[in-house]
Design brief:
Blueprint lengths: L1 H155 L1
Length: 157
C-alpha cells in the first residue's frame, strides 16, 4: 500500500514535473514572443515618429509653398486693384472731359447761331445801304444831268 502510494506519488511527481516543464517552456516561449512584440512595437513607434516628422516637414514645406502662393496672389490682387482704381480715375476724368466738351459744343452752337443771326442782320443792312447808295447815285446822276441841262439851257438862253 505504502509502496503503491509511493509509486503513485512518484508518477504524479513525474507528471507534474513534466507539466511544469511544459508550462515553463510555454512561459519562456510566450516571454520571447512578448519581447519580440515589444521590440516590434518599439520599431513601429520609431517608424511612426519618423513618418510623423517627415509629414510635418513635408507639411511645413507645403504650407510654406501655399503661404508664398497666397502672398503672390495678394500682391497680384493689390496690383490689379491699383490698375482698376487708375482705370476708374481715368474713366471719371474722361467723363468730365466729355461733359466739358459737350457743354462747350452747346455754347459754341449758341454762339454760332447768334453770330449767324448777326451776319444775317448785317447782310440785310448792307443790302439796304447798297440800295440806298444806288438810289443816291441814281439821284445824283439825275440831279447832275438835270443840272447840266440847266447849264446848257442857261448858256443857250
Amino acid at each position: 500500500n505504502a509502496e503503491e502510494k509511493a509509486k503513485k506519488a512518484i508518477t504524479d511527481a513525474a507528471m507534474m514535473a513534466e507539466e511544469l516543464k511544459k508550462e515553463q517552456d510555454t512561459s519562456a516561449h510566450l516571454e520571447r514572443m512578448k519581447k519580440n512584440m515589444e521590440q516590434t512595437i518599439k520599431d513601429l513607434q520609431l517608424r511612426l515618429d519618423e513618418a510623423e516628422q517627415l509629414a510635418l516637414k513635408g507639411g511645413k514645406k507645403q504650407l510654406q509653398k501655399l503661404e508664398g502662393r497666397v502672398r503672390e496672389l495678394e500682391n497680384e490682387l493689390e496690383a490689379e486693384q491699383k490698375r482698376n482704381a487708375e482705370s476708374v480715375k481715368g474713366l471719371r476724368k474722361s467723363e468730365r472731359r466729355v461733359k466739358e466738351l459737350s457743354y462747350q459744343t452747346e455754347e459754341d452752337k449758341k454762339n454760332l447761331l447768334r453770330l449767324q443771326d448777326l451776319v444775317d442782320k448785317l447782310q440785310m443792312k448792307v443790302k439796304a445801304y447798297k440800295r440806298q447808295a444806288e438810289e443816291a447815285v441814281g439821284e445824283w446822276d439825275r440831279v447832275r444831268d438835270d443840272g447840266w441841262m440847266m447849264d446848257g439851257w442857261m448858256m443857250a438862253g
